[in-house]
Give the backbone structure.
Amino acid sequence: MNRMAIAVFALLLAGTCVWPATAATRWNPVSDPQTISWVATDGSGTAIRGACADFTSDIAFDPDDLANASVRVEIDTASCKTGEEEKDTYLPQATWFDVASYPVAVFSATSFSHENGNDYVADGTLTLKGVSLPVKLPFALEIKCDTAHVTGETVINRLNFGIGSGQMATSQVAGPNVTVAIDLRATRAKSGKDAQ
């Protein structure tokens, strides 16, 4: 057995994955309605949990090439629900998400930093209900062969985006802060064309 064969065999035994230098860095998310979830509070401080089940994404990320990393996620705001019929009747209305006027929310980022170990931060922009504001998303990334797992969360102020406007803007109705969590599993795309 020559040296090259021995090296390859050793890598296989170690469970290490090897890709060519031109390996794709684009990722296709695994469908899961809980990938994008959120927690808010009602006027009494009780947690209100929800998720945005439908989204599309264009993800290009390589930990060794952050300068060329980019993420764009388009969320169907009509799919953002709590699972409680009464609350979900109100969410699409103009006072809240105004789904008729703003059917899509967008998070995009082209600036990423490595913090420590598997921890990174995306400096992006969230466009929600026609308002675009900077949002930092800290996240942890684990890549094993052709699969990736991303978890992270950030806090946004719903009032800055006009979510729950008018009489609904008071903390007696709902707290201003909403924690948005990401739990994304994705597979490495064979080519850029395969990315969602």
